[in-house]
């Protein structure tokens, strides 16, 4: 009887430890794939344009524009702007397609090891969504 009680407690502790380890692995995986390693900073158009190419001075620049990109997303500063207004504020995009612009941010994903881009999506010629995604430098 005593052995059975101790064994149940032991199994409960093992299950709890396994659960904590799995939770830790899940949170690290989430952070690696989806989190942006930047602190939000107030958007400044001149500073943004000055840092147009985060890789101009180093192949390992860190998250150069990520903080300002977070501010753009949180404040909806360019939502409902047209392409010309976006270019006036953010400068020429690194890449552009019919329905979106991309701007290099530096290494803001994967614990600061992976390249990130700000994607500006357009519908009916107006900005409808901003997101930070992994991208090529």
Q: Please state the average pLDDT score.
A: 88
Distance between the termini: 64 Å
How many strand elements? 4
Q: Write the element-wise H/E pattern from the N-terminal end onward.
A: HHHHEEEE
The main pleated sheet reads as: 4 strands, antiparallel
The class by helix and strand makeup works out as: alpha+beta
In short:
The protein is an alpha+beta fold.
Notes on the structure:
The chain has 137 residues and is of the alpha+beta class. The protein is 42% helix and 23% strand. It is built from four helices and four strands. It has helices at residues 2-34, 45-50, 66-75, 83-90, and strands spanning 95-96, 100-109, 114-123, 126-134. A four-stranded antiparallel beta sheet has the order 1-2-3-4. The radius of gyration is 22 Å and the shape is elongated.
Brief descriptors of the model:
137 residues; 4-stranded antiparallel beta sheet; single chain
SSE blueprint and pairings:
Layout: H1 2-34, H2 45-50, H3 66-75, H4 83-90, E1 95-96, E2 100-109, E3 114-123, E4 126-134
Antiparallel strand pairs: 1-2, 2-3, 3-4
């Amino acid at each position: 009887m005593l052995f059975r009680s101790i064994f149940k407690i032991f199994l409960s502790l093992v299950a709890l430890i396994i659960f904590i380890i799995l939770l830790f692995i899940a949170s690290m995986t989430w952070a690696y794939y989806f989190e942006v390693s930047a602190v939000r900073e107030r958007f400044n158009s001149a500073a943004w344009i000055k840092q147009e190419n985060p890789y101009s001075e180093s192949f390992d620049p860190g998250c150069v524009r990520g903080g300002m990109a977070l501010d753009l997303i949180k404040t909806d500063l360019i939502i409902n702007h047209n392409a010309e207004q976006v270019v006036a504020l953010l400068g020429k995009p690194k890449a552009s397609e019919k329905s979106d612009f991309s701007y290099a941010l530096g290494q803001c994903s994967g614990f600061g090891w992976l390249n990130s881009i700000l994607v500006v999506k357009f519908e009916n010629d107006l900005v409808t969504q901003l997101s930070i995604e992994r991208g090529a430098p």
